[in-house]
Amino acid sequence: MATQNVSEEQLQSQFTYIDAVARLLGDKHPKAYTHTFGCQQNEADTERIRGMLSEMGYEMTDTPDEADFILFNTCAVREHAEDRAFGNVGALRHLKKERAGIVIAMCGCMAQQEKNVEKIKKSYPQVNLLFGTHALWRFPSLLYRVLTEKKRVFDIGGEDDIAEGLPVLRAKGAKAWLSIMYGCNNFCTYCIVPYVRGRERSRRPEEIEKELRELVAAGYKEITLLGQNVNSYGKDLGIDVDFADLLRRLNAVPGDFWLRFMTSHPKDASPKLFSAMAECDKVAKQLHLPFQSGSDEILHRMNRRYTAEHYKSLIADARSKMPDITLSSDIIVGFPGETDEDFEQTLKLVQDTRFDLLFTFLYSPRTGTPAASYEDNATPQDKQRRFERLLKAQDEIVAEKQAAYQGKKLRLLVDGNAKGPEYPFTARTEGNLLVCVRGDDIKIGEFIEAEIEKTSLRCLFAHKL
């Protein structure tokens, strides 16, 4: 079944509510504070909520103490993210007592789970509004109800539809997020995402291209295409366009910018994709391809649907077409049933592949996923010992790879201010490596040529040429 879009009539009704909220607020000039937990998709969702708030007349603030509206966009991928969200909302209890008129809202993946809805209803009375990932586009009508009915509003309903045309308020700077699809069909046994974000649904390529052109015209230089599994883009559209085709189409948009994407799933990565990456001059030669475990037994228990050998063949193909490609990955240590032998296979894959960057996690059980009920015989001490060995091995690899950049001349995108006075700016290489840079007449948002003059484990240091 092809993905459906929210109808024009439904979308226009939300703009009517935006106007209605603006009339309610009048000339009060209220302030809104938003805080995002979790992934880049959550960041992109928050940008649309901020866009709607701005259209209503809210001004953004960086502190909740002076806000009239406070929103936490939550993550459910790991327990730590949930604990942080509850902790932040709990800390607002005193603020609510001081200023009863404040509206406190929660949304996102954590808010989509029934267990959390009940917990918030019973234990967090300061929360006025809660809505799930499927209800995001209905935010204006939900906020209008809160403001007019003076009652708590909870909405985690909705279909797996796409809403085009929502206002967006992006952060200023060099970088922007561009969602190309939503949801996930993979059902990895440890992951809650398909249950809270729904099935895969792709945006039409013409809508994506339109938004990219707007971003380029606005001066953004690094645009990251977002999806839970970008490699399966287009399968639900009923047209003969896949992710590699989309990359080629977007690469043809005029302008000087880099295209990145995340996240990729190895089961859907293909030689066609790597050929497109190699041949498209604006697509950064950087690949984030999570492998999670080097043990085929654990991969099977995770329902990842590839083997370690297949993963290594993908890396070999990518490197043969893009010798300078930068590689990163995700690894879960301590998945239920993981033995020392399984871990050794993971460690070997890391040592053989030599990633430029790894995101490593100790397994965190998620209620509602199959893995949460799996038998687990390893002790916390066993898992921590494996985790530390993995970190040590990866640090040794990174130290060698970083040192190899000494004296190289690279094109960098300046993207922010650094903390140290000697190197006052941060920048990124095409491979997404962090660089602290110094020199005259450097501006955030510009490409520069620079020479690497020293290296460290986490950062390169350069001077502008």
From TrEMBL:
Binding residues annotated for [4Fe-4S] cluster 2, in chain numbering: C184, C188, C191
Domain MTTase N-terminal: 30-148
EC number: 2.8.4.3
UniProt catalytic activity: N(6)-dimethylallyladenosine(37) in tRNA + (sulfur carrier)-SH + AH2 + 2 S-adenosyl-L-methionine = 2-methylsulfanyl-N(6)-dimethylallyladenosine(37) in tRNA + (sulfur carrier)-H + 5'-deoxyadenosine + L-methionine + A + S-adenosyl-L-homocysteine + 2 H(+)
Cofactor, how bound (note): Binds 2 [4Fe-4S] clusters. One cluster is coordinated with 3 cysteines and an exchangeable S-adenosyl-L-methionine.
Hydrolase in keyword set: no
Matching Pfam families: Radical_SAM, TRAM, UPF0004
EC top class, as a word: transferase
Radical SAM core domain: residues covered: 170-400
The protein's required cofactors: [4Fe-4S] cluster
Compartments in which it is found: Cytoplasm
Binding-site list for [4Fe-4S] cluster 1: C39, C75, C109
InterPro entries associated with the record: Elp3/MiaA/NifB-like_rSAM (IPR006638), Methylthiotransferase (IPR005839), Methylthiotransferase_CS (IPR020612), Methylthiotransferase_N (IPR013848), Methylthiotransferase_N_sf (IPR038135), MiaB_methiolase (IPR006463), rSAM (IPR007197), rSAM_horseshoe (IPR023404)
Domain TRAM: 403-465
GO cellular component terms, semicolon-separated: cytosol
Keywords for this protein: 4Fe-4S, Cytoplasm, Iron, Iron-sulfur, Metal-binding, S-adenosyl-L-methionine, Transferase, tRNA processing
Gene Ontology MF terms: 4 iron, 4 sulfur cluster binding; metal ion binding; tRNA-2-methylthio-N(6)-dimethylallyladenosine(37) synthase activity
Top-rank taxon: Bacteria
Keyword check for S-adenosyl-L-methionine: yes
HAMAP family tied to this protein: tRNA_metthiotr_MiaB
Subunit (UniProt): Monomer.
Family: Belongs to the methylthiotransferase family. MiaB subfamily.
PANTHER family tied to this protein: CDK5 REGULATORY SUBUNIT-ASSOCIATED PROTEIN 1, MITOCHONDRIAL TRNA METHYLTHIOTRANSFERASE CDK5RAP1
Main function: Catalyzes the methylthiolation of N6-(dimethylallyl)adenosine (i(6)A), leading to the formation of 2-methylthio-N6-(dimethylallyl)adenosine (ms(2)i(6)A) at position 37 in tRNAs that read codons beginning with uridine.
UniProt protein name: tRNA-2-methylthio-N(6)-dimethylallyladenosine synthase
Species whose genome carries this gene: Agathobaculum butyriciproducens
Gene behind this protein: miaB
